[in-house]
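Morning!

This is the sequence you dropped in the shared folder:
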Amino acid sequence: MREVLDELMTTWRAGGTAGLATVVRTIRSAPRPAGAALVVDPDGAVAGSVSGGCVEGAVYELATEVAATGRPELQRYGISDDDAFAVGLTCGGILDVFVEPVSQKTFPQLDEVADAIGAHHPIAVATVIAHPDPSWLGRRLIVDSERCTGSLGSARADDAVADDARGLLLAGSTAVLSYGPDGQRVDESSGETDTGMEVFVASYAPRPRMLIIGAIDFAAALSQQATFLGYRVTVCDARPVFATPARFPSADEVVVDWPDRYLRGQRDLGAIDGRTAICVLTHDPKFDVPALEVALRLPSVGYVGAMGSRRTHLDRLDRLTAAGLTDTDLVRLSSPIGLDLGARTPEETAVSIVAEIIARRWGGGGRPLAAVDGRIHHELVERSSVASADGAG
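The structure's back. Tokens below.
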């Protein structure tokens, strides 16, 4: 829903009803992940996507119908059949899409959710997508770390789902949870599959952060690319003449400070986590070595990369070793930064850097898909550190 929130809020504030379609479950090689959304406003305008094109037309029609009738519907879209006009996924995957009407009446807490997302406060939306009693469909529970608003239909269901939703929110995960009709816990060991109620929990954790060290032209290109991918970007440099908002319009913030001091401060605030990417682009040992000393000792960070030639890399390793970093620390460093794309310009180099970050996150090998057998889409790789890389921009 995050990707269509602006369009959804426009209709909501105007007092209208929109049709919201959300991918709640994927099977095999589905084109969009759970949480992907499409919204149709009262004038018929559409925003977002649930399949990258395969079933958009059918979902659009269903969302328009649901907005008019007010009756939510869970629809499965599978493989196309031999009929050229059949609606289906040519990729061989399966999507479960929940379509619901959204208005101030059906979703009174939407402004609360939008405010939390805008303020980077973690929040989860739990929605009943399947239940023996149709009146439960579309009921919601809004969950954060301290409180809940709304109700799924009973105190028992609310308590069970709130507890599980907080666990998913803490992990930044989105999932379909199964319960008995009144929120009873399902005994998986019994083999019982008729659970009665399914709840889709969408977690809206704050955007992941990218901390770019070094206010250079490559940093401007990387800031733009990272923002496009959904990162909250900070550019940090100790030189005020270079670290200015005008030079980095894509960044969320530009900080004038010694990078190592800034990183220590962010560490002490708990503002660096396993989704954070730290990219050191300075080429200057007095900046990059102290910053990397801090970054590589962080207990949890998603990615640490440093720009430079192979000669610069070897010199940097010697300096870091002399500073007391161990082989276990140094193996977390991606240097030279980026995948081997043959990049030369700042813009091309930025693509190579984010390509490596994406590959590390999802377990991709960085090879052409045409040269790889098996699944195209990978499962998320949970890791707090990364191995060293030989790739250069």
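Headline: The chain has three domains: 1-107, 121-129+136-206, 209-370.

More detail when I'm at my desk.
O.
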